[in-house]
Task: inverse folding
């Protein structure tokens, strides 16, 4: 958070012409998100990662490391 505070203090000291250049730089380097991208429905997300991960067949099997703690 200290960096943000320092930036705010530094920005306050900049002349208007430099502020315009800083604003242009930020605009060019900030990804633009369209309204359509932000209004996706829940149904669009369901299953979107299907096939991206492989789960071991014995995923639910007890781990040997914990045998002494199990009944």
Result:
């Amino acid at each position: 958070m200290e960096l943000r505070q320092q930036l705010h203090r530094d920005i306050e000291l900049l002349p208007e012409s430099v502020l315009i250049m800083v604003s242009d730089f930020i605009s060019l380097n900030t990804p633009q998100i369209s309204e359509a991208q932000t209004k996706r429905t829940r149904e669009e997300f369901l299953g979107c990662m299907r096939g991206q991960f492989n789960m071991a067949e014995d995923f639910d099997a007890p781990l040997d490391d914990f045998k002494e703690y199990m009944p």
